[in-house]
Amino acid sequence: MEGRDRDRDLRGRARNARPRDGLGRPLPYGSPGVERQPEGVLRTPEETLAEAQRLLDAGMPFHAHEVLEDAWKSAPQPDRALWRALAQLAVGLTHAARGNATGAAALLARAADGLEPYADRAPYGIAVAGLVRWAREGGRDGSVVLRG
User: Fold this and answer.
1) Confidence grade of residue 6 (pLDDT, cut at 50, 70, 90)
2) Closest CA to 53 of 64, 62, 65, 42
3) Structure-derived torsion over alpha carbons of residues 49, 83, 39, 45, reported in degrees to the nearest 10
4) Which helix (H) or strand (E) holds 109?
């Protein structure tokens, strides 16, 4: 917007303040939107998985991605790749819900690649092998269960 200063969050970081729809798409300023997930919330892995699953079940994969992204950014180094892959899975679902089949396929494949190293175990009770299989099949059934 001409003459408009860049949107900033409370810490002064650039952050688009436009309202968003339920799939995270920006709406015009002043439009009613769906509340975004607060950024930078520290949760336990169990809290993260429960909140992400609740959002996925509610048809809000963009919001689930934001929760999983917080976990990715705050996780200790050995766990970051796991949380990044889970966030990518949610972004793949977001693309699918928005009708972007190409983007969905790319992100689901990337998520499956990232999850594959964890497939022989179930960190935090995550059903990794099932998620990898589901993502490689393109998430055809539309629902995802993070925990076994």
Assistant:
1) confident
2) 64
3) 40
4) helix 101-115
DSSP string, 37-63: PPTT----HHHHHHHHHHHHHTT-HHH
Q: What is the pLDDT of residues 104-139, one digit of tens each?
A: 999 999 999 999 999 998 999 999 999 999 999 987
Annotate 16-33 with DSSP letters as a single string.
--S-B-TTS-B--TTS--
- How many Å apart are CA 1 and CA 82, to the nearest integer? 38
Q: Label residue 29 left, alpha or beta by phi (over 0 means left) and psi (-120 to 50 means alpha).
A: beta
What CA–CA distances, in Å, run from 145 to 2, 46, 132? Answer: 44, 14, 11
